[in-house]
Amino acid sequence: MDVMKAMEIFSQAILFLGLIFDIIILLFVVLSVLLIYSLLMLSVESKSFEFGVMRMVGLSKKAIIILVILQSFLFVVPSIICGFLVSFSFLHWAKYYADHSLQMDFDANPSIYSILQALFLSTLIPLISSIMPIRVVLDRNLNDALDI
């Protein structure tokens, strides 16, 4: 029975750590969305005249949406590459430390689930952050067209 009580305590501690990590991930996602949103809004504000000219020349709303989304993905792609490189190198360093100092063996390669989760979040973040800049571009071009 003592073993069962100890396992219950460890189980609750693991659940608590999982909750803490989920909250940290959520915090990083929100922070990333806000940072990319602010960068996109600055870009949209500075290029509003160019977007208006493109719309007058015949660029469709769909093409402007694609331009803004592509720009948001261009902010994210370098961070995805750097993040994977840093995480793989950190995992291999941690495996080396665990092998030599702690005599502990674990797999240094991340699971497919964690890679897919990282890729899902890294594609979701620019899509969420580009919603408001797209609305601003389309509304501003519509308002500018009505003023003429």
Set down the secondary structure blueprint.
Blueprint: H1 2-46, H2 48-57, H3 61-101, H4 112-129, H5 131-147
Task: Give your account of this protein's structure.
With 148 residues, this protein is mainly α. 89% of the residues lie in helices and 0% in strands. The chain is built from 5 helices and no strands. α1 packs antiparallel against α3 (61-101) and α1 (2-46) runs parallel beside α4 (112-129). The mean pLDDT is 84.
Would you tell me the overall average pLDDT? 84
Name the beta content range. under 5%
Topology, number of strands? 0
Give the N-to-C terminal Cα separation.
Answer: 81 Å
Q: What is the N-to-C succession of helices and strands?
A: HHHHH
Output the radius of gyration: 23 Å
- Would you tell me the structural class of the helices and strands? mainly alpha
The amount of helix comes to over 70%
Shape: elongated
Largest sheet: none
Low-confidence stretches: none
Instruction: Count the DSSP helices.
Output: 5
